[in-house]
Amino acid sequence: MPDIQQMWGADFTLTPSGDLNLVDGDDLTRERLLRRLLTTVRGYIFHQSYGAGIPQRIGDTLDSNVVTAVISAQVRKEATVATTPAPQITVTPILNGVSAYIKYTSAITGQHIALSFDTSN
To answer: What's this model's pTM, rounded to 2 decimal places?
Structure first.
């Protein structure tokens, strides 16, 4: 089922006729994963267990294993990410932040998909 398109940190976009753009399939999964991983822990008043809060970890001593485990747990919560093969996650420290690379298999199309993001303060 399509949803309104909104990439993390961007505004809504419109179609040429002025309607809100919609997104579905693997693109929707990417949007949901980014939202889940970058949302502050307890970021939603009615869904206080939602969100990995990866940006909140900036400034703490980086434990790549902990960040990898948090990302892995959150990725497994998305039904459109296949459980087999398990997603591959790489977390790398960058200046004042962290870079994450996730390779997973779509439960919708069976395609291998790469997703990466950087966070910094």
So the answer is: 0.77
